[in-house]
Amino acid sequence: MTTAISTRGLTKRYGARTVVDHLDLDVPAGVVAGFVGPNGAGKTTTLRMLLGLVRPDAGTGSVNGVPLTQPAGYLPRVGALIESPAFYPGLSGARNLAVQATLGGLDPAGIPAVLERVGLAARGASSYQSYSLGMRQRLGIAAALLGDPALVVLDEPTNGLDPAGIREMRGIVRSINQDGRTVLVSSHLLAEVEQVCDWLIVIGEGRRLFQGPTRDLLAGGGDLEEHYLSMFTSTEGTS
Ligand SMILES: Nc1ncnc2c1ncn2[C@@H]1O[C@H](COP(=O)(O)OP(=O)(O)OP(=O)(O)O)[C@@H](O)[C@H]1O
Ligand SMILES: [Mg+2]
Question: Are 194 and 218 in contact (CB under 8 A)?
């Protein structure tokens, strides 16, 4: 199988507003794919449709070759971090992962490895409430990795992080990909993800503006980048 994610005409409306507008996406297996668009562009809504959390109003799609209409068929091999996961403040990071493993029917033997992968090995015994924002984000990613996923979906994992935290997050994304997993990572800032992405999808107002290898955007896409920036500026005040 060579395509991790594919959609055709994927559409979501809320009332009279079309927030995801006939998206045709193709994410090759094995890449780090960036999913970029300004606030309100429809990134989270699209990711939620891919994860079976929101029902599309139109369109089709598949994840790891299984139709979106059968999420139970593909979700066991998908790890996701969408919004902050619910962790128990008083439990340690490691205990929280043990709880998640139990709830998800996953093998807790993998917990030390995923803590190591996100750089929390030394702090796994500390309580969640003592974690910094970046550590909380990383524990969420560790939880997403527990089930040994083929596809990892991360919705704005750099939100709220300082430049050092953003760099660290890029390193984590890279290392998850080096394990052979496809990663789809969203951001409202192209600059934050372009260095780590082989593949980019840029959306605005629910529509696809660019999709392809990152080098194609950077080579011929100066116009798009400008367009993207102007769009970002113009929607900033209204969202
Ligand atoms: N449950 C909902 N009901 C009504 N409108 C919604 C709902 N969820 C999302 N929207 C609208 O859909 C549009 C896209 O939202 P979405 O959260 O997908 O954008 P986003 O690209 O993830 O933005 P951000 O960068 O701010 O996270 C927004 O205008 C939002 O208000
Ligand atoms: Mg969002």
Answer: yes
Tell me the per-residue pLDDT of 209-226, one tens digit each, with 9 for 90 and over: 999 999 988 776 555 666
CB 114, CB 146: distance < 8 Å: yes
Residue 218: CATH number of its domain: 3.40.50.300
**Structure-token pair, residue 42:** 């429809």
Domain span at residue 57 reads 3-236
- Predicted confidence (pLDDT) per residue in 91-139, tens digit: 999 999 999 999 989 999 999 999 999 999 999 999 999 999 999 999 9
Asked if residues 49 and 56 have their Cβ atoms less than 8 Å apart, the reply is: yes
Task: Report the nearest atom of ligand 1 relative to the CA of 20.
Answer: 14
Around ligand 1, the residues with Cβ closer than 6 Å are 14, 19, 37, 39-45, 188
